[in-house]
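In practice, a research group might receive sequence data for several interacting partners and want a quick structural hypothesis before committing to experiments. The following worked case mirrors that situation: the sequences arrive first, and a predicted assembly follows.
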Amino acid sequence: MVKAKENDTKMSRSALRRLREKEQRFKTILSAAETLFARKGYNQTSIEEIADLAEVSIGAVYFYFKNKEDLLIKLMQEIGYYLRKLLGEELRKTDFSLHSLQHIAFVFLRDFCLSHPEKITIFFRESVGQSAEVEDQRKELFIKLTSEIRDAVLKISEGLGKHFVTESSPELIAVCIVGIYERIACHYLLWQDRSEDMMEIAGEASSFMLGGVSNLFSHDET
Amino acid sequence: MVKAKENDTKMSRSALRRLREKEQRFKTILSAAETLFARKGYNQTSIEEIADLAEVSIGAVYFYFKNKEDLLIKLMQEIGYYLRKLLGEELRKTDFSLHSLQHIAFVFLRDFCLSHPEKITIFFRESVGQSAEVEDQRKELFIKLTSEIRDAVLKISEGLGKHFVTESSPELIAVCIVGIYERIACHYLLWQDRSEDMMEIAGEASSFMLGGVSNLFSHDET
Amino acid sequence: MVKAKENDTKMSRSALRRLREKEQRFKTILSAAETLFARKGYNQTSIEEIADLAEVSIGAVYFYFKNKEDLLIKLMQEIGYYLRKLLGEELRKTDFSLHSLQHIAFVFLRDFCLSHPEKITIFFRESVGQSAEVEDQRKELFIKLTSEIRDAVLKISEGLGKHFVTESSPELIAVCIVGIYERIACHYLLWQDRSEDMMEIAGEASSFMLGGVSNLFSHDET
Amino acid sequence: MVKAKENDTKMSRSALRRLREKEQRFKTILSAAETLFARKGYNQTSIEEIADLAEVSIGAVYFYFKNKEDLLIKLMQEIGYYLRKLLGEELRKTDFSLHSLQHIAFVFLRDFCLSHPEKITIFFRESVGQSAEVEDQRKELFIKLTSEIRDAVLKISEGLGKHFVTESSPELIAVCIVGIYERIACHYLLWQDRSEDMMEIAGEASSFMLGGVSNLFSHDET
DNA sequence: CATGAATGAGTCTTCATTCAT
DNA sequence: CATGAATGAAGACTCATTCAT
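A structural hypothesis for the assembly, expressed as tokens:
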């Protein structure tokens, strides 16, 4: 009995280790893909190159991922998960003032864009125009982000005791905010390397954003 | 002499006709590429399909265009030329009031996005992440658009006798405006088909934009 | 000694159980292969699928069978063994009249073809044109079957006190008989599903067969 | 006018030559595939090998044939066309006596099997068990052959003023005949090389066949 | 100039087989 | 013995591009 128990523990240990190793492999391959997709572009990267960088065989890539497209989709999911977790944490801490919107935008630029240039490259460039499935993934993530920002905007307005000019204003505001920060990331980080000026840019951008939001508050109360 | 002249005239006539035919061919092929790139995607479209749709031979495509990438670049140039002409005309008519900014945005959505869905598909999706050269073309167009908007914003501020908080504000404002309208086009036209609501959306979007611009006006002047 | 004996008995018991289990495993895997080869085709079936259906690991398949080809060969051997046992039993019961030939054919169609559609699929279709070794196996089985039928035909002719036109007639007769029943199985069972009409078909087929055999009896005696 | 006509003729000439060359290419590639499929087997032959033997590029193979399977299907069609033309000519010449059946069988063995060993290899071995589409092609050809023989048998019986035991007898007879000659071809040509004895075998085989046919004639007529 | 047949490098993908645990 | 992750050779197939006619 005792021995069996010991065996059990032993097996569970080695099984756990195997599981950990599998996850590690998965991550290593995904990370290699991320690096190469960002560096050379999705279409210009071959599975063989990914396998080489991850120091595994071609077959291993296909053991962990259905095909090349799957790598990109999984990468998008990971990016989406990371980004939404990051912003979600900030949203949860928020005091529902306009200031908190500024803070979230700031976090997006500093902790996502500046810290993970490969991720924005993939999200804003390499995942565009590849295939219907990837496009769906992209669209879904954008829509989720937009609706989360819309909800935050709505809550902030409630916190301020204000209404918007129309019912659909919060969504439009969210779309505008997403657009602003997407373009800032592309313009100042992917195209020009203005990393050092980013915090200054972020400041003005949040002024712009807040001006935009304020302008859609309804004035017909009290 | 006379004969030569006759010949000259003759040649010039047929030469002109040939020239016209050549231009026509060029346009037909480019138009076929536009249609297919927008419908099936750049990577999923083969030269043969383009030749078929344009009712020319594969060789003809290569006579008028260096390679497949060249088709996309020429298409981007055409789109860029068209868009800048469209916006340029509006900018020239402007009275340099904030209202004129609204008008330009309106024209962009109505006369470009709504009227040419294939063009925005190519510009905002199919031309992304393809190759360094296409990316450069995209970047260049974006930067030109941005700087034109920046100049307009600057002139408007001068017209209003106002300054911006920093010297780089006009550029940032332009980046934000471009971002807002790019995302609106993607979100409401490529992803959701909200063509009918577009004018309403345009109204709120311009409110947002104007609020953003106003918020970056410097307040330290008498 | 006693203890050793006890141990021996013990080992022999568990060894027997193990042996039984091993045989069971072997059969389970072979049966899974049979099912899948018949359903999806040999080339379209992967070892993994066989392992899955047999509820064993890929490694287990390779423990019991040298390689994929070996599975097919073992399957052919099993089919051959089964078929020859079936026909052999009938041949042993025979009274060496022409009637017994009829009976054997009948047994072939009813107890082999109708009862084991997967076996005829593999024997008449999936084992064809795969590899030299499989082809050899097929050939060997066909030749054994043919020579058994030849021997039966010979004995029957002796029983009837007749000779054949040439010495090689019995073999040719056997070849013809095998061909007739192979094609009947393919035509009426694999291609058309005429299972219900099979017994009627069998009747006429045996008339044909007997007519063929009779026609090769030599007439130059007494 | 005259010149135009000349030009026309010229173009038509070179166009014709091109057309001939295209057909030639097609045949060369198909012939290379036939040789290799028969020699090494369908699965063991790569497109590259076919291209090499035909002295064309891999791309050329794909220009003329949709894919590897298409090569096999086209080959089967060609074989089927050839075989049916061969037998059809004989059937047309027939005097609708039992003797003509013998003749057709003889032609099949001599002019098809003996003269085109690669064709029977592909038809009786390499086209078996490859894919649903190839199997359909095979089946269709077999069924056409069978029904042609059935019709011939029917006409012969009419010529002899005889009936068969059942309405479906002619079809069964055709199935048996096809089976007999298929197996003879496999047994004596593909497996054993009994080419020299073929004519002798053919003689006995036709005796067998005729015996079989006669045995299915109905006896209940005056 | 126009044609479209021909090229062949480049990639993805499969899967039988192995072997460390 | 059993497992199943890992291997990597092999092959089908694509398609942008060229060039002889």
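Before designing any experiment, note the following. Chain C touches chain D through 48 residues (CB under 8 Å). Residues 18, 22, 48, 51, 56-60, 63 of chain C lie near DNA strand F (CB under 10 Å from a C1').
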